[in-house]
Specification:
single chain; alpha+beta; TIM Barrel; 4 domains; seven-stranded parallel β-sheet; 36% strand; globular
C-alpha cells in the first residue's frame, strides 16, 4: 500500500514493512498477542490488499487477530477488527527502526532522511508496553530509558535503544473483573469499564512517515482527521502558536476584591492570563464559590468577560478527579459510585452507635491511609485500625456517621466497602462518576469562556486500577464538552494526552525558594524532554514568599530580587514560560511586589521580542550567575552581577569608646573596574535576634574615618539595610517593605581595580550581639540586546 512517498506492506509471516522514499524504515512483527501470561509473535498471516486497504488475519500460537490497514491521507491507520476472546492485550509493534533520535512521549524516531511516528487514536490505546510483561520485551536489554527519566520503560511510545528506537502502543482487555496493587495496597478492585472501551476490538494507531521538519504538521493534520483533541489559541494550533508559552498568573486564596486586584497585577506584569486557584466550593461537583463569583457559573462568566475587556484571559485550576469530603457526592448521602478499594462484610449486627465493627475478612483494611474510610449502606465510617484477635477481625476506634452522613444500624452480611482516599483528605470516583465530573468541568469551561486550565492530579485517575486509560479518557471527555479553544496542561505526561495538553507544567513552586539546586536541574532537564517531544516549553511554577515568622521551625527569608530575576532569566534562557503562583496576601504584603511585576514584564518582553544570541542564552543557564535586566530605548541591557556573600561573626574587639564592631570584606578579583560599593545587609542573627542603630563604610584594612556613615535608625533582627551606592540607605522590614530612607554623611565608597576590600562598622543596640548577613553586588558585564525587526 502506497501513500505518497510512503509504502506499507504486510507479508505472510505477519511482518509489517515500512518504507519512505524507497528506503526501509522498519520491518517488524505487526503486533504481539498476549494471553495466559505469554507474549506471542506472529506465526503467520493471511493477507489481502484491495486498493486503499490491507485486510489480514494474523495467527499466533495463543490466538488470532484481524487487522485492517488503510491510508486515509498523510498517514496509515492500523485497526483491530476482531481478536480472540482469550487475549489479555495486543501490542502494536514494537516496530524497530535504526533511527536514533527519538521522542519517547510523542512516539517518534528520526534521522536526517525522515521521521516515523506511531500515534494512539483513542484513550484505550496506551503508549508503551504492558508493564507486567516488560521482562519479555525483545529490546529490554538494549533499552536506554533510565529509572529517573520522565517516562518509565513501559511508558515509552518510542523506546530509545542502543541500536535505534522501538515504536510501540498497546490495548488491554478491560471487560473482565481485575485486581491490582497500588501504593502499598495489594489485590485491590479495579473499576468496571463499560462499552466498547472495555474491549481490544476497535483499537487503532496511526503510523506517520515524513521528513522530520514536517512531522509536527503531519501530526496536526492527523489529529483533525481522526477527531482527536486539537487545542487552539486564537484559532491557531497550540503546538505551533508562540502564545502557548506565555507565562501566566496564578492567584490563590483570593477575595472578590483580590480578584480585581489580580487583573491589575497581571497588566503591570504584562501577563495575559490570570488563574483562579480556588474558584470552587468543593472538588467533585465543582460548584463555583458565590463569595468570589456572585451568581455561581454566571458570575464566573461575567468575570471572564470583565477580564477580556482588560485584555486578559482567565483560567482555573482543579484536582482532576479528587472529591472533597464536604462535596454532595459524599455528604449527606454518599454517591453509589465513590471508588472502592476493597470489600468484606459484617460478621455480626451493629447498632447506630459503637466504635468497634467486626468484619469477615481483613483484606486491605489493616493498612492505614489518611482517612481510613469505610462505607456500609449510606453511612460513612472512619476507623483507627484493624484488630485481629482470637479469629475475629474488628475495625476499632470507629467514628460513626463520618462527614455528615447518618449513623444507622446494619445487619450481619451487609457489604463493608473500603474507599480509596488521599493525603489531600479527599475521596475518588469510579469511572462512571469520573465521566460525570469531566462532563461538568468541560461544560463549565464552554459556558464561562475559561481559556486555560490545569489537569492537576491526573495521578488520581490511576486509583481506578485502569492505568493511563482512565487519565486519558477523563481528559478526552472534558475536551469533548469544552471545545478546542482551551490551553491546558498536566504535570504527568502521557502519549495519548500529548494531543490534548498544550504543554506540560507542574506545581512545585515552594520546593526551591532560591530557584537553584535540585529543582533547577529538574526544570532544565525537562526542557530537553519537551524539545525532543515537540512540546512547547514550560519551566513549571514559581512563587514569591514572605519571611517565616520568628516562631517557625524553619527560618526562611522573603524572596529577594536576585533570586527572582534568576528565575526570569531561566525563562529567557530556555524560551520557556512559567506559572507565577502567589497568594493574594503575599502580593499585598511583599515590599518588592511592584519590582517583581515590572521585572516579569521586562524579561518576558525580552523573551518574546528580543534578538537573543545563543551564547547569551547559554550564559543565562548558569545556575550560579545573577542577572539584572535594564530596559532602554533601543532594547535592553543585561547586567551580569558578581555576588559576594558575607556572614558576619560577632567580634570582641571594640573600636574606640563607641562599642563599634567591624567586619572586613574582601572581594573576588573579578571586580576589575571601579564602581560604588552596593549591598544588602540583613540585621540580626539566624534567629532574627538583635538590632542595629549605626552603619558605616571604612576603607579596607584599617581606615579610621568612615567614608560613608548612617546613624539615627533602629533596625531590628530580620530587617534589611539596602545600600545602592549613593548617599541613602533604605531600611526595609523582613518582607522588604520600606520603613524609612536614611541620608548618610560622606561619599560613595568605590571598589574595583586595586581596591579589593572594605571595612563595615556597625553598632548593636545595648545588650545585643549580632551576626549580620550581607550580599555585595558588582556589575561585571553588560550585554546590549535589540528588539527583533518587526
Amino acid at each position: 500500500m502506497e501513500n505518497g512517498k510512503c509504502r506499507l506492506s504486510l507479508d505472510r509471516r505477519g511482518f509489517l514493512t515500512a518504507e519512505f522514499g524507497g528506503a526501509r524504515v522498519f520491518s517488524s512483527p505487526v503486533g504481539l498477542f498476549i494471553a495466559d501470561g505469554e507474549v506471542c509473535e506472529p506465526a503467520g498471516a493471511e493477507v489481502s490488499e484491495d486498493g486503499g486497504k490491507i485486510a489480514a488475519v494474523v495467527h499466533y500460537d495463543a490466538g488470532r487477530v484481524s487487522l485492517k490497514i488503510t491510508g486515509p491521507g498523510g498517514y496509515f491507520r492500523i485497526a483491530v477488527e476482531e481478536i480472540s476472546d482469550n487475549a489479555r492485550a495486543f501490542v502494536f509493534g514494537p516496530y524497530f527502526t535504526v533511527k536514533k533520535n527519538y521522542g519517547e512521549l510523542v512516539g517518534a524516531a528520526w534521522d536526517d532522511d525522515s521521521a516515523v511516528c506511531i500515534q494512539s487514536l483513542m484513550p484505550k490505546v496506551v503508549g508503551g508496553f504492558p508493564a507486567e510483561y516488560e521482562a519479555s520485551h525483545k529490546y529490554r536489554a538494549s533499552a536506554l530509558a533510565g529509572a529517573f527519566d520522565r517516562l518509565k520503560f513501559s511508558e515509552c511510545a518510542a523506546l530509545p535503544c542502543r541500536e535505534g528506537t522501538a515504536l510501540q502502543c498497546h490495548a488491554r482487555d478491560m471487560s473482565k473483573p481485575a485486581r491490582f496493587d497500588f501504593l502499598g495496597m495489594e489485590n485491590c478492585e479495579a473499576c468496571e469499564v463499560k462499552g466498547s472501551d472495555a474491549f481490544i476490538k476497535g483499537a487503532a494507531v496511526a503510523l506517520i512517515m515524513t521528513p522530520f521538519e514536517n512531522l509536527l504538521d503531519a501530526i496536526g493534520g492527523m489529529e483533525r482527521r481522526e477527531g482527536l483533541p486539537h487545542p487552539t489559541v486564537n484559532g491557531e494550533w497550540a503546538k505551533k502558536s508562540p502564545e502557548t508559552t506565555r507565562s501566566y498568573f496564578m492567584v490563590s486564596r483570593q477575595t472578590a476584591d483580590g480578584r480585581r486586584a489580580a487583573l491589575e497585577w497581571a497588566k503591570k506584569a504584562g501577563l495575559r492570563c490570570v488563574y483562579s486557584l480556588g474558584p470552587f466550593v468543593s472538588w467533585g461537583h465543582f460548584e463555583i464559590d458565590g463569595k468570589l463569583y456572585q451568581g455561581g457559573d454566571d458570575g464566573l462568566k461575567r468575570a471572564v468577560l470583565e477580564a477580556r475587556e482588560c485584555g486578559i484571559g482567565m483560567g482555573f485550576h482543579t484536582l482532576s478527579n479528587f472529591i472533597h469530603t464536604h462535596d454532595p457526592y459524599v455528604t449527606p448521602v454518599p454517591d453509589d459510585n465513590l471508588l472502592v478499594m476493597d470489600r468484606t462484610a459484617l460478621s455480626s449486627d451493629i447498632g447506630e452507635a459503637g466504635d468497634r465493627i467486626a468484619v469477615e475478612k481483613a483484606n486491605n483494611f489493616g493498612r492505614r491511609s489518611h482517612l481510613n474510610v469505610i462505607r456500609i449502606g449510606a453511612e460513612l465510617i472512619q476507623y483507627k485500625s484493624l484488630s485481629v484477635s482470637g479469629g475475629e477481625n474488628a475495625l476499632v476506634g470507629c467514628a460513626r456517621g463520618a462527614f455528615g452522613t447518618s449513623a444507622a444500624p446494619h445487619k450481619a452480611g451487609d457489604p463493608v466497602l473500603r474507599l480509596w482516599d488521599h493525603a489531600y483528605m479527599t475521596l475518588f470516583p469510579n469511572l462512571e462518576l469520573q465521566n460525570e465530573m469531566a462532563r461538568r468541568v468541560g461544560k463549565l469551561i464552554k459556558y464561562t469562556g475559561i481559556g486555560r486550565m490545569s489537569f492537576d492530579g491526573m495521578e488520581g485517575c490511576l486509583y481506578t486500577g485502569r492505568g493511563e486509560y482512565a487519565c486519558s479518557e477523563y481528559v478526552r471527555r472534558c475536551f469533548s464538552f469544552s471545545g478546542p479553544e482551551l490551553l491546558c496542561d498536566a504535570s504527568t505526561p502521557s502519549h495519548y494526552r500529548w494531543h490534548a495538553h498544550s504543554y506540560f507544567n507542574w506545581g512545585e513552586p515552594y520546593w526551591d525558594w532560591q530557584g537553584r539546586g535540585g529543582m533547577f536541574h529538574y526544570r532544565a532537564d525537562n526542557q530537553l524532554f519537551f524539545e525532543r517531544n515537540l512540546m512547547p516549553r514550560m519551566l513549571g511554577q514559581y512563587s514569591i514568599r514572605l519571611s517565616a515568622p520568628n516562631n517557625a521551625s524553619v527560618k526562611t527569608e522573603a524572596t529577594g530580587p536576585e533570586d527572582f530575576e534568576f528565575m526570569l532569566g531561566q525563562a529567557v534562557a530556555h524560551n520557556a514560560g512559567f506559572g507565577f503562583d502567589c497568594a493574594q496576601a503575599t502580593l499585598e504584603k511583599h515590599g518588592l511586589t511592584p519590582f517583581f511585576l515590572d521585572a516579569i514584564r521586562t524579561w518576558e518582553d525580552l523573551r518574546f521580542n528580543g534578538d537573543i544570541p545563543d551564547h547569551v542564552r547559554e550564559k543565562l543557564r548558569n545556575e550560579h550567575a545573577d542577572w539584572r535586566l535594564e530596559e532602554t530605548a533601543e532594547g535592553w541591557i543585561l547586567h551580569r552581577l558578581h555576588l559576594n556573600e558575607f556572614r558576619f561573626h560577632y567580634q570582641e574587639q571594640k573600636c574606640g569608646a563607641e562599642n563599634e564592631l567591624k567586619e572586613i570584606l574582601v572581594f573576588d578579583r573579578e571586580v576589575k573596574s571601579a564602581a560604588a560599593l552596593a549591598f544588602r545587609l540583613r540585621v540580626g542573627d539566624p534567629d532574627n535576634l538583635g538590632s542595629m542603630n549605626y552603619l558605616a563604610i571604612h576603607e579596607g584594612w584599617g581606615g579610621f574615618d568612615p567614608v560613608m556613615a548612617f546613624d539615627g535608625f533602629e533596625a531590628k533582627g530580620g530587617d534589611y539595610l539596602v545600600y545602592g551606592g549613593g548617599t541613602a540607605l533604605e531600611h526595609r522590614d523582613s518582607d522588604y517593605r520600606l520603613i524609612e530612607t536614611i541620608e548618610g554623611v560622606g561619599k560613595p565608597y568605590m571598589i574595583g581595580g586595586t581596591l579589593s576590600s572594605a571595612d563595615i562598622h556597625w553598632r548593636a543596640s545595648a545588650g545585643n550581639t549580632l551576626q549580620p548577613h550581607a550580599k555585595v553586588y558588582h556589575d561585571v558585564e553588560q550585554i546590549a540586546m535589540r528588539r527583533k525587526p518587526r
